[in-house]
């Protein structure tokens, strides 16, 4: 007997429900209690983000949070049945929490990065433009940023200075509401035609013209030499005890001034500098706080230098993980045999917790709509990153992705599958490939962000909340 039209439609609906991949909007699925929990989490996250504008600040704040949860410094205590952390050069932090199983059987590892694109001060940075009437500071780009976004806006200075003789000084300037800020001027539209407007956008702003206005009141009298530069140096000396040579052994970062905040009439979004990758960092900490007694031991590493290719002594291309894994063995009373440590790493399963490019509603054309990430639909499982032709991609195996999505399903995690942009549009990578080199399983997993690498990146409160659930489900896996 033929089906009625209604029966036919019901059958199709059932079939679609069974066969088609789901990508639900989290807001549709949240209860009022969930929404309250997401709001509380977002408030904590906004404070963390506001207070964590450099890789050093990230490490310092994580140390404080971990200490509050009973983790000990593995450089001070060898045994750490409650978990321990290891800090390297104050810019890289790894930590360990014992599980029911031995570290010899492998870890559940989450890796993320604490650095974000920014401007640094050059080692010799103080100079003057006496004609226009300014003492100024020269900057150096760090990471992939769009230069024009950093002009004509309030900027803050976060510095760590190592003076001659070993004294160190930390500076935060421009963050308190009543503080003055710094800024890089931009040219007025009336006069920018030849030097900016008629050029390609990437060439319109010259990196070496991105200099900060530091002072406009000189020292001395009109005929004195270098009086604007001296005015800058005098302030650096009077306030922080720095002489010009101390700037050579200083790390001074220029970041957007002011707090991270809620965005939208409905306050559903999160806006702030450095969400790549501090949102996944924060979500990892929240998940670790939740999963106090995992089966497999937890390992977390927050690397520095990801934004410039993971090079250097605190980047993911180094071998800090071997050191941390060995200390984790010792922390639970095991002897360190390197073959056993390497075997544990081989058996490790990992998430690379990094943000994904969310679809920009005004530039949908650069995304491939079937495989792009949408704000509000949860963390993305990204099987591979890299460029066209999968160059530079470690690519997670089918079996491993299957295990992760099963763990997510068991915990009721809403997630989405995504890859970065269309082929031949560009590309990008994460730290995943450096960890994959140990032979371990790793897949990228993080929430979508729009305006990525800008001074005001945007994410969703629902995604933050769901990302914590996803990472917690992974730690229990
Ligand atoms: Mn990132
Ligand atoms: Mn990035």
Helix and strand arrangement:
Blueprint lengths: L4 H15 L6 H4 L2 H19 L4 H14 L3 E2 L10 E5 L3 E6 L10 E6 L4 E12 L4 E9 L12 E8 L5 E6 L19 H5 L3 H4 L7 E4 L11 H14 L9 E7 L4 E3 L5 E4 L2 H16 L7 E6 L16 H12 L6 H9 L2 E4 L3 E2 L22 E3 L3 E2 L10 H13 L5 E2 L9 E2 L3 H5 L4 E6 L1 E2 L7 E4 H15 L2
Parallel strand pairs: 1-2, 4-13, 4-14, 14-20, 15-21, 16-18
Antiparallel strand pairs: 2-3, 3-13, 5-6, 5-10, 6-9, 7-8, 7-10, 11-12, 12-22, 16-20, 17-19
Bound molecules: manganese (II) ion (MN) (2 copies).
Structural domain tally: 2
The percent range for helix content is 25-40%
Based on Cα principal axes, name the global outline.
globular
Total beta-strand segments? 22
Mean pLDDT: 96
Rg value: 25 Å
Kindly name the structural category.
alpha/beta
Strand content: 15-25%
Tally of alpha and pi helices: 13
Q: How far apart are the termini?
A: 49 Å
Strand order of the largest sheet: 1-2-3-13-4-14-20-16-18
Low-pLDDT windows of residues: none
Give the ligands present.
manganese (II) ion
**What would the CATH topology of the largest domain be?**
Aminopeptidase
Main β sheet profile: 9 strands, mixed
CATH superfamily of the largest domain: Zn peptidases
Q: Please identify the top-level CATH class of the largest domain.
A: Alpha Beta
- What is the CATH architecture term of the largest domain? 3-Layer(aba) Sandwich
